[in-house]
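Late entry, S-adenosylmethionine complex.
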Amino acid sequence: MKNVALWTDLEGRHFSVNELKLPHLLPLIEGLDFPGQDPVILDVGGGSRSLIEHADFGPERRPAIGCIDIAPSDIMHMTASRVRHFRAELDDLTSGRDPETEGQLRGFLHRWGDPANPGADAMVFSDVLNYVDYKQVLRWFDGCLKVGGFAAILNGVGRGFFTAFSDMGVQSDIELLDYCDGDLGYQQVQAAHLPAPSEYGDVLLAAFQKIG
Ligand SMILES: C[S@@+](CC[C@H](N)C(=O)[O-])C[C@H]1O[C@@H](n2cnc3c(N)ncnc32)[C@H](O)[C@@H]1O
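Prediction complete; structure with ligand written out below:
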């Protein structure tokens, strides 16, 4: 296992789902202007359960949520419908060493997505880009995002354990924002700094749209 800060290691320490992620990330996802009825959402590094399951998309919408993680998943407690879990090392997936997971993932997107404009309506990178080769991961998953779809990012530079912290992770907010709107050509929809409940500094919350 490389470049990984296990979710369980972080729980109860410098990290707060209740204070940080649920109150800030979920409204951002819920507020995205999805073109279709039932959005297909991919939670990259979603942990053993995707936080996005807690989002409220209204009674009419039934999102399809895919969650990729190396951690064991406990699907017994899933509440959202159409949830699929994929277990993979992001490094293996993005470098082509895990064709099986890639096949499953593409099958999920194909099954629930729009055949005329394939891919996810939104991708979520919550507290994960810091632990991986973030440019490689964002670039690879860009191929899973439909045109008009959104990338939602929550990230704290320096967050996590230094032993597990990848030097390919995000070094500064500016660098991350530049990569999204410069290299990937995304259009920034919003970006804000959240006060973090830790000594690690602020957390960036941003959303981008893939425009072409
Ligand atoms: C701090 S947790 C965040 C979990 C969840 N996204 C959230 O916001 O609650 C970091 C996540 O990234 C995943 N992760 C980090 N590096 C990874 C890698 N190389 N391959 C797969 N998953 C990875 C971990 O397993 C973990 O679930």
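DSSP finds six helices and seven strands in the chain. Will revisit in the morning.
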